[in-house]
Amino acid sequence: MNPAGPLLAARGLHKTYGHTKALDGAEFSIRPGEVVAVMGPSGSGKSTLLHCLAGIVTPDAGSIDYQGRELSAMNDAERSALRRGEFGFIFQFGQLVPELTCVENVALPLRLNGARRRDAERTALEWMERVEVDDLASKRPGEVSGGQGQRVAVARSLVTGPRVLFADEPTGALDSLNGERVMQLLTDAARSTDAAVVLVTHEARVAAYSDREIVVRDGRCRDMEHAL
Amino acid sequence: MSIGHTLLGLLESGPRHGYDLKRAFDEKFGHDRPLHYGQVYSTMSRLLKNGLVEVDGIEAGGGPERKRYAITEAGVTDVARWLATPEKPEPYLQSTLFTKVVLALLTGRSAAELLDTQRSEHLRMMRVLTERKRHGDLADQLICDHALFHLEADLRWLELAAARLDTLAREVTA
Ligand SMILES: Nc1ncnc2c1ncn2[C@@H]1O[C@H](COP(=O)(O)OP(=O)(O)O)[C@@H](O)[C@H]1O
Ligand SMILES: [Mg+2]
Asked: Residues 6 or more apart from B116 whose CB is under 8 A from it?
């Protein structure tokens, strides 16, 4: 792979739900270590784009290239291995397993990849320290605040050392101060591991943590880097 | 706000007399600040001198308000350039941004594009402030936050305007 070229690139993505064209020829590309904000009005197709890029949703048409491999040419097992090994995820809420403690939640992706419990939890704790929630290790998600829960989710998303972090409105349910803290920790942590971040947000103050932005409108993308 | 560009933009849909230009301006943009005739004449003679408009006819009776002006090709280019150039992010942009959005719609240009371009320019400054905040002390952080919230407010207005473009398009072309 050309190191200066894109890590993940999509062309001509189409996705229709019933009569709704969620994606209508969307394009996207991100380089290693880059933070790209995906902006646009509600219902414009931002989440659908993120789900397609991450191999969660299969587009009706179009190509998605990850490090020279075409996502649609992979079988389910290969795509799921990619999601577990190379990708990390943060959503607005609801991603932590309520029955597990915070450290077990953070360790979960490593456990699913076959790591031993003690090793997994040691690595998990290191990540929790980096985002300053190691003191919550033995608490359950229901016992921590929204901001703390999102920081636990940041730790969990990065614990496997992903190359791409997909964040869909990661601060959407937080107040300003907690949102800022989460964005600072998330982007610092991602930059320290050179992970690329696809950051879906409609908030400009959140997008200001990105290197550049694209705008999604009616299922199509406008790359603002090359707009002027 | 640039009166020259605004009058030029109004001329794009067809030639108008001086009095007609003033009326159109006041109706669409002059809510609390109607133009003086003097402003119209001085602006139009500057535009004439710069080749951005030409005199298309003169009604009987003389008087500068009786002159009919038409936009030139150079004038159209000038309006396009003005609309495509984002405003430097700073306080009290509302009237300029409003004028640009309305003129874009009146002249059949994409207002959504204008809004995206302006957002991009705002974000450029917001990234600098966010970076400064990361490394600054508490006072720096508070000052940067103040600026960031104001820039965000501009953008939220722009976004709302974008969402209302359809309605606006129907109103301004009615
Ligand atoms: N699973 C789905 N089933 C039906 N319609 C969907 C589904 N996912 C998204 N849509 C529709 O597709 C459009 C784009 O949705 P989405 O990608 O979630 O937008 P955004 O994240 O920008 O708000 C919307 O009209 C939405 O209602
Ligand atoms: Mg969404």
From this structure: A215, A222, A224, A227
This prediction has a pTM of 0.84
Residue B23 within a domain: yes
Does B33 lie in the same domain as B11? yes
pLDDT digits (tens, 9 = 90+) for A29-87: 999 999 999 999 889 999 999 999 999 999 999 999 999 999 989 999 999 999 999 99
Separation CA B74–CA A17 (nearest Å): 47
Given a contact cutoff of 8 angstroms between Cβ atoms, the answer to whether A23 and A30 are in contact is no
Q: Mark yes or no for CB contact A204/B123 under 8 Å.
A: yes
The model's pLDDT over B75-128, given as tens digits with 9 standing for 90+, comes to 999 999 999 898 888 766 677 888 888 888 888 887 788 888 889 999 999 999
| CATH architecture of the domain with range A8-215 | 3-Layer(aba) Sandwich (3.40)
Using alpha carbons, select from A34, A35, A73, A38 the residue that is nearest to residue A55. Answer: A73
Give the number of the atom of ligand 1 that is nearest the alpha carbon of residue A15: 12
Would you state the pLDDT for residue B162? 65
Structural domain of residue B131, as residue ranges?
A: 96-173
Asked if residue B131 has pLDDT above 90, the reply is yes
Q: Assess A192–B contact: CB distance below 8 Å, yes or no.
A: no
Helices (H), A55-203: 76-85, 102-112, 117-130, 146-158, 176-192
Helix (H) or strand (E) holding B125: helix B111-135
Instruction: State how far the Cα of B102 lies from the Cα of A171, in Å rounded to an integer.
Output: 34
CATH of the domain at B59: 1.10.10.10
Name the one residue in this structure whose structure tokens are 């103040």: B146
Q: Which of B120, B155, B159 sits opposite A224 (nearest CB)?
A: B120
3-state helix, strand, coil in chain A (%, to 5): 40, 25, 35
Identify all chain A residues contacting B129, using CB atoms and an 8 Å cutoff.
208
The residue type found at B143 is: I
Number of domains forming the structure of chain B: 2
- Cβ A201 under 6 angstroms from ligand 1: no
- Better-scored residue on pLDDT, A1 or B100: B100
| β-strand partners of A197 | A35, A165
Sheet containing A69-70: give its strands across.
Answer: A20-30, A8-17, A61-66, A69-70
